[in-house]
Write a structure and sequence with these properties.
With 423 residues, the protein is α/β, with parallel strands linked by helices. The protein has 16 helices and nine strands. Bound molecules: zinc ion (ZN). Zinc ion (ZN) binds at residues 155, 224, 245.
């Protein structure tokens, strides 16, 4: 026995180094293929909250590279976007839900206009790096020119107030999707995370707004809405719908995620669900008890801060306290592999033609391995490892979303032609 062992040992070493070399080779091959795909296909993320980040941190310079993880670095800038092979983004024109009074609606509109202005200014300040995109053609042209395509999507219909005429105003300013509600009910309908239903889904005003969005060519976004509202939109919309940042409820049971029946309805509708890379919507992770003890007293305030209910100064203090806890007791977070599990599930339920990516970076998104725009290729790599083809990845990274935008614009032109001929 002893002799055999002595003889076998060198072979074990040779075999081990051979396996290592093969692993390195396949890793290199994977990286090469990933880079090749990002260079070739149009990639877009449908939800980044940079405008809100910029409003909070006016000194942030989008054309400078910010070191990931450093204080104030955010998860998006133009340099890291290029680094991550991300060609396009929908900047989120996000308004937290406030009082539904005339004054509240006026302030919400003002806030949304401010974020649009910030986004337009960012593009105007960086003509060599970015351009505003309104259509798929714009996006592909901008990509070819080696620049970043900047779309805008409005999160929460609150700034529309009670006037459907505002839909056209925001359309003309470049908004190409509207998320009907955010975390609470508004005049347009019910949210998935409010305490109780108020409208049984879409309100009569909400129905008018969806109709107007269809007519103008704005994608209807059903992320954040109550399931009843989702089904109302599916029944009413004349265009494919999008979920700009939502994940699968079968893998992570959260009201913000979509169950399999809803995913199948999106497939039938021709729409697309853009996977949200926010930990709470990806996987429930066991947390360090010390972290829980530290965070519990802060939880109510964090919720209020997220809802925009606190003053700027108080909100800043709450975030700082939260950051300090995060540094002391880092959260146990889901990974890029967990995100890919959602993609696998969605593909099983609705096929590869109805999935995309909406990270929610700068708005709570970020997982281990995909924590800012520069790390987008890690998801591509994971999909390649799981056997997804280049064509599948092209669809997931942008092809599907661009198809929905093109169809939305096409239908709007038909509706407008019918509208003029019937008058
Ligand atoms: Zn959101």
């Amino acid at each position: 026995m002893k002799n055999t062992n002595c003889l076998a040992l060198p072979f074990v070493f040779i075999a081990a180094s051979f396996t290592l070399a093969t692993a390195q080779k396949s890793e290199d091959e994977l990286n090469r293929k990933t880079a090749e795909i990002h260079a070739k296909v149009f990639t877009v993320d449908t939800h980044i909250d940079w405008p809100s980040n910029q409003l909070r941190n006016p000194e942030f310079v989008p054309r400078e590279r910010h070191e990931p993880g450093e204080r104030g670095s955010g998860q998006w800038d133009l340099v890291r976007m290029k680094e991550g092979g991300l060609d396009g983004v929908f900047m989120s024109i996000y308004t937290s839900q406030g009082p539904r009074t005339d004054d509240g609606h006026a302030k919400a509109k003002e806030h949304a206009l401010k974020l649009i202005e910030l986004t337009q200014k960012m593009v105007a300040d960086n003509p060599d790096l970015a351009e505003i995109a309104l259509t798929p053609e714009d996006a592909y042209r901008i990509e070819k020119a080696g620049k970043r395509a900047i779309f805008m999507g409005m999160e929460n219909g609150y700034p529309l107030g009670k006037d459907p005429g505002n839909v056209k105003m925001f359309h003309d300013l470049g908004v190409r999707y509207i998320t009907i509600t955010h975390s609470r009910n508004n005049e347009l309908g019910d949210s998935s995370t409010d305490e109780k239903k108020e409208w049984e889904g879409l309100s009569p005003l909400g129905e008018q707004v969806v109709k107007e969005m269809n007519r103008l060519g704005i994608m209807v976004d059903i992320s954040h809405v109550h399931d009843d509202l989702f089904w109302d939109v599916i029944a009413q919309a004349k265009t494919p719908v999008i979920a700009s940042h939502s994940s699968a409820r079968a893998l992570c049971d959260h009201a913000r995620n979509m169950n399999d029946e809803m995913l199948q309805a999106v497939k039938k509708n021709g729409g697309v669900v853009q996977l949200c890379l926010l930990g709470n919507y990806i996987k429930t992770m066991p947390q360090n008890p010390e972290r829980e003890t530290a965070i519990t007293p802060l939880r109510e305030k964090l919720r209020a801060a997220r809802r925009g209910e606190l003053g700027d100064e108080e909100a800043r203090k709450v975030w700082e306290e939260f950051q300090a806890i995060n540094t002391k007791y880092p959260a146990n977070r889901p990974t890029v592999q967990d995100a890919a599990d959602h993609i696998d599930h969605m593909v099983k339920v609705m096929g590869v033609d109805h999935i995309g990516i909406g990270s929610d970076f700068d708005g709570g998104g970020g997982l281990i391995g995909i924590d800012d725009v520069s790390e987008m290729p890690n998801l591509t790599k994971e999909l390649l490892k799981r056997g997804y083809s280049e064509e599948d990845i092209q669809k997931i990274w942008g092809g599907n979303l661009m198809r929905v935008l093109a169809e939305t614009i096409k239908v709007s032109k038909q509706l407008q032609a019918e509208g003029t001929s019937s008058h």
